[in-house]
Write a structure and sequence with these properties.
Number of strands: 15
Radius of gyration: 20 Å
Bound molecules: aspartic acid
CATH architecture of the largest domain: 3-Layer(aba) Sandwich
Number of helices: 7
Distance between the termini: 39 Å
Structural class: alpha/beta
Number of domains: 2
Shape: globular
Order of helices and strands: EEEHEHEHEHEEEEEEEHEHEH
CATH topology of the largest domain: Rossmann fold
Helix content: 25-40%
Strand order of the largest sheet: 4-1-5-6-7-8-11-12
CATH class of the largest domain: Alpha Beta
CATH superfamily of the largest domain: L-asparaginase, N-terminal domain
Length: about 300
């Protein structure tokens, strides 16, 4: 039997609360990933290996952890005796890590991110079932690509997004819809595995990542933030536009000036679903179906 490697990065799935009834006042990233694994008897039938890559609340995710995670994931995927990798992660930035890993590695084995909305000490913790499902998913024959598996739903890494701050079923895939469902250890797959051309690990190993920020259009928005970001040395700016990527005139002017000065700009929508439908004459390039946070990761990767 081939192995599944479980890389721990922290999150609520490894969180502890003083009282079992408290699902919000807890500390994330307290329990070692090896202990999360041994607490699930149903995992005993798998050949597993656990490694702690980081121990953080994912709201604090940074580029150094991403570099280490990409390196360790690539290292284990290259092993003949490994079928796939599961990553325990916080829910807050899981979608950014998923986009990052899919674009950098586009693996031909499964890399499954999983998480929990309730700490491990909760009355009805969701983490153990999510981790069990993620391991089953990583072990499915032919499974490939970066995916997220939470609350029994499987999302492609480039579609997944957090849509709820509290509910256990906190993720969805936007207009793409889920990739499938985990049912008693089996995947009911609705569409193809995620695939793509990897940008490669070498691209992200340098430490001088470009500064890329997000500015949002909203009533009364002006260009002051864009000008401030230019002064800070931002190399890229993602505009989270209203509706179909529209921008108020002062903000658009500031972005056009930034673009003319060499700052890379991508336009997205602050709405929750869909893609930008361009008329073809847009002066600021569209990021298509990317969410603002996905576009930010994408722009950083392009600038690296
Ligand atoms: N703040 C936590 C984190 O992202 C939330 C969670 O995991 O649900 O690590």
């Amino acid at each position: 039997m081939k192995r599944i490697v479980i890389l721990g990065t922290g999150g609520t799935i490894a969180g502890q609360s003083r009282s079992a009834g408290d699902n919000v006042g807890y500390a994330a990233a307290q329990i070692a990933v090896a202990d999360l694994v041994t607490a699930i008897p149903a995992l005993s039938g798998f050949a597993l290996e656990a490694e702690q890559v980081a121990q953080i609340d994912s709201k604090d995710m940074d580029f150094a952890v991403w570099r280490r995670l990409a390196q360790r994931t690539a290292h284990h995927l290259a092993r003949d005796d490994v079928a796939g990798v599961v990553i325990t992660h916080g829910t807050d930035t899981l979608e950014e890590t998923a986009w990052f890993l899919q674009r950098v590695l586009a693996p031909d084995k499964a890399v499954v991110l999983t998480a929990a909305m309730r700490p491990a000490t909760a009355l009805a913790a969701d983490g153990p079932q999510n981790l069990l499902d993620a391991v089953h998913l990583a072990a499915q024959p032919g499974a490939r690509g970066v995916m997220a598996c939470v609350a029994g739903v499987v999302h492609a890494g480039c579609d997944v997004r957090k849509v709820h701050p509290y509910r256990v079923d906190a993720f969805d895939s936007g207009d793409a819809g889920p990739l499938g469902y985990m049912e008693e250890g089996s995947l009911r797959r609705l569409r193809d595995w995620p695939h793509g051309v990897p940008l490669g690990l070498a691209r992200v190993l340098r430490e001088d990542w470009p500064r890329v920020d997000i500015v949002m259009n909203c009533a009364g928005a002006d260009g002051a933030l864009v000008d401030a970001l230019r002064a800070l040395g931002a190399r890229g700016i993602v505009a989270a536009g209203t509706g179909n990527g529209t921008l108020g005139a002062p903000l658009e002017d500031a972005l056009l000036r930034a673009q003319a000065a060499g700052v890379a700009v991508l336009r997205t929508s602050r709405t929750a679903r869909g893609r930008l439908i361009d008329s073809g004459d847009a002066a600021l390039p569209s990021a298509g179906a990317m969410t603002p946070v996905q576009a930010r990761v994408e722009l950083m990767l392009r600038l690296l």
